[in-house]
Amino acid sequence: MGSTRARIAIDAMGGDHAPAEVVAGALKAQEELGVEILLVGDPQQIEDSLRLQDAIGRVSTGQLEIVPSEGTVEMHEEPLSALKRKPKASINVAMNLVKQQQADAVVSAGHSGAAMAAALLRLGRLPGIDRPAIGAVLPTMVPGTSVLILDVGANVDCRPKFLEQFALMGTIYSQCVLGVAEPKIGLLNIGEEPSKGNDAAVRTHQLLVDNPNIPFVGNAEGRDVLSGNFDVIVCDGFVGNVLLKFAEAVGEVVVQVLKEELVKGLQHQINDPMLQDSLKGFKQRVDHVEHGGGLLLGVAGVCIISHGSSQAASIFNAIRLAKGAIDNQVLERIRSSNRESAVEQEAFNS
To answer: Are 302 and 330 in contact, with CB atoms under 8 Å apart?
Structure first.
């Protein structure tokens, strides 16, 4: 590619607040993160949003690129059939940009099922990965420490082998992007003992114990998820999605209750700068907006699936997440790890 800077294709038509909020978040990322932005969608609507931001001049000066598309996959549509009926839909065009090496990553707040399907159809899976997984980063009780949960929605049902692959990808992501030198990997279960859970959980536990490339420390119960005792927790997408949405709801409830109680008890101190800084730090730790969305791990391209309700701040953070995956060469590291695992397995079998 011509530039050494990350080029991010943004599905400008995806999400409840598209394209205005998507464009606003993309502009903020361009300014603060130094990334190149390709806005994929209806040119007229994107230009109208750029005018609202007083940024239409960026297109004429080459600082920003608009890539035309036709239509989008609606939330009520079945992903695969819609993608086939709408080859020029914004998510299809954005994925093609990555496939053709005109962009390094895709960010979309649109139909998550369509984003996953488009990634698989156009980018394909990484060698050694049977199923991709969506990884979501959540805050923990330990300041400055987060936990990566995967899968949170890509696979409703999972075989033990899939969960083992999730754990391996989570290990690499935790090390390379989250900066955890020796991540602690856990398997979500109903008890700490290896014999707990259903047959799939017991078999997965053994696979994780036997894999030397996974720093597995044991089962994680529900109360352990946000404890800070685990850096990565693997589970199937059904449980993971319920867990993610419950955690987001709890965060929103806590923020709301805190606001209400502060107004009652600290009416004369609410504008105190020190208190405002503390509230800002609290919000950053518990608000899902600060994390931007989830990385679709296991496909041959960087793909961030953001929340459908994403506004500018969340889109900005999704782009930051994509840039982190690019800068830290997550895809290359997963490929390398899978090659090493294949060689080890072949040597073992022989």
So the answer is: yes
Rounded Cα distance between 119 and 123, Å, is 5
Please provide the DSSP assignment of 242-266 as one string: HHHHHHHHHHHHHHHHHHHHHHHH-
What span, in angstroms and rounded, lies between the C-alpha atoms of 184 and 201? 18
184 DSSP 8-state letter: P
Residue 93 is encoded by which pair of tokens?
């065009």
**Structure-derived torsion over alpha carbons of residues 69, 103, 312, 262, reported in degrees to the nearest 10:** 140
Cα 170–chain centre separation: 12
Q: Scanning the structure block, which residue is given the tokens 């993971």?
A: 240
pLDDT in tens, 282-341: 555 555 555 668 899 999 999 999 988 889 999 999 999 999 999 999 999 998 887 776
Q: Give this prediction's pTM.
A: 0.86
CA dist., res. 233 & res. 219, Å (int): 9
103 within 8 A of 322, measured Cβ to Cβ: no
What is the identity of the amino acid at 118?
A
